Amino acid sequence: MRLGLVGGLGPESTIDYYRRILDRWKALDPTSSPSIVIDSLDVKRALDLVARDREALTRYLLTSIQRLADAGADFVAITANTPHLVFDDLASRAHVPLLSIVETCADEATRRGMSRLLLLGTGFTMEAPFYPEVCARCGVTVVVPRSSAQPARRLSVWSVRLTMLPPTWRMSSPMPAVCLRSSESRSFI
Question: What are phi and psi of 13, to 5 degrees?
Fold first, then answer.
């Protein structure tokens, strides 16, 4: 079985996904390696399409998914959150199964017994309904900082982090700046 990754839409996150997949595989079977093919796209072009032309974004991503299928991928994952804005359209038009990182996140939150998650990411990701809607189907509430508390709109954010919140936590005041500590993060939010 071969995995296809639509990468480059956060080059750092593509590297992180690849590294984590290899590490997990090695933990399960140190005598072999997974079959993975990566199609690295232009992050600047994709973000421009997110902002101005979602149908063109869908076509751009579908072209990548098809290249991966042509390279023998049995299923495909997109290594960034923001392109999941058009995930449902991609899934309905792709010729190979797609793995949603949003659905995977919701499933993992449920598995861990989490009921409230804090969403930090690009403005596009935090404004879109896909995380709250998908997580709600699993009984998980997604909290997004108020727009006045979202300096991420002015900064480059390379990852989305969902974090369990204590049940008493409220969004009554602006969020303090926190540093995302990960290999793909390059900014303060």
Answer: -70, -30
